[in-house]
Write a structure and sequence with these properties.
Elements lengths: L1 E10 L4 E2 L4 E5 L4 E4 L3 E4 L3 E13 L3 E9 L2 E13 L5 E11 L1 E2 L4 E2 L3 E7 L4 E11 L2
Antiparallel strand pairs: 1-3, 1-13, 2-12, 4-5, 5-12, 6-9, 6-13, 7-8, 7-12, 10-11
């Protein structure tokens, strides 16, 4: 289990990775923060990923956050807040499952698998939190 977060971070428009600057909880070695923007899943199984954030747009437009798995955008894990203004913060949440599969051809696990969150909308400033729990 892992919980990481950041406070008052600026995330650039269109391709800025969401940073995680602090660790609130780490139990075991199944998930860990590597660098400042990558969560690494180290064991085969299914993980629950819960992302929560509160952002203020630096310019009027859409706030768009999407989860990447091994660098590939995940279509089930994207959230868009349309018409965000510079005067009101907006909540963004993503809840999804990620499977780290067994690779039967080599009798090994496809770990590590990496998870990142990317801003593809306007520049934003705010707080981000992600909790990762291995459920089976």
């Amino acid at each position: 289990m892992l919980e990481v977060y950041s406070k008052n971070q600026t995330i650039p428009a269109t391709s800025g990775l969401v940073p995680f600057t602090s660790q609130a909880l780490k139990k075991g070695c199944t998930a860990e923060l590597t660098g400042t923007n990558t969560v690494q899943l180290n064991k085969c199984g299914v993980y629950e990923i819960i992302f929560e954030a509160e952002y203020l747009a630096s310019a009027a437009g859409n706030i768009v956050i999407q989860m990447l798995k091994n660098g590939v955008a995940q279509p089930q894990a994207i959230r868009t807040v349309t018409g965000a203004a510079t005067t009101e913060s907006k909540s963004v949440s993503i809840s999804t499952l990620v499977q780290v599969k067994d690779n039967n051809s080599c009798k090994c696990c496809d770990a590590p698998t990496t998870i990142q969150f990317v801003n593809t909308g306007v520049e934003i400033v705010g707080d981000s939190n992600v909790v990762v729990t291995k459920i089976c």
